[in-house]
Amino acid sequence: MSNTEVRSENSPRPTGDRGFDMKLEVVVIPVADVDRAKSFYTSLGWRLDGDFTAGSDWRVIQFTPPGSGCSVIFGKNVTSAAPGSARGLYLIVSNIGAAREELLARGVRISEVFHAGEENIGTDEPYLFGSRRVSGRDPERRTYRTYASFNDPDGNGWLLQEVTTRLPGRIDTGGAAFVSSAELEAALRRASEAHGEHEKLTGQHDEGWPSWYAEYMVKEQTGEPLPT
């Protein structure tokens, strides 16, 4: 699978006023049974933002996954799409093993961990850019390359994707942030392991480790070259 970048660290960046923000905040998924879908997404531990009705012909329910800036809505007469037709809905996690175990504990039928093969001839769903699934983690533990999948009761397909280091330009340095304690903990553990290697190279204890950790964690998230 190619890692062709739409925007690299060398791409021109806007100066001064960047214009209007355009934030993706809501995705509509089609379901047949609204109450069944509500029960399922509640079981995932997602935040219920609202359940709105207008008479007997219209209902909208909104959920937000933990740490997400984007919510999902479904309901009655909110979309003409066929129930279960949504595919390739990505949920980004920093530790796919822990995320999968949590979903299993919540009773979700979720696939084994897998990675994308090099042959673009697969027909597995949810869609994986046409690549054949290969069992297990990516052998090189590369970011963006390890997944697990599950469906909701209607068949809408979700993919967990493990992202530990962002590609250059995906997050501006000024916007680096950790949206949950679990994500921050995982980043701290990776920084700790990397800092251990740093001290092996220098042969001495690093009194400035807080600054080193901070630099490593921000650069890892924004896709900049990491300190060594």
Automatic annotation (TrEMBL):
InterPro entries: Glyas_Bleomycin-R_OHBP_Dase, Glyas_Fos-R_dOase_dom, VOC_core. This is Glyoxalase. Pfam families: Glyoxalase. The lineage of its organism: Bacteria, Pseudomonadati, Pseudomonadota, Alphaproteobacteria, Hyphomicrobiales. Residues 23-163 form the VOC domain. PROSITE patterns: VOC. It comes from Rhizobium altiplani. SUPFAM superfamilies: Glyoxalase/Bleomycin resistance protein/Dihydroxybiphenyl dioxygenase. It comes from the Bacteria.
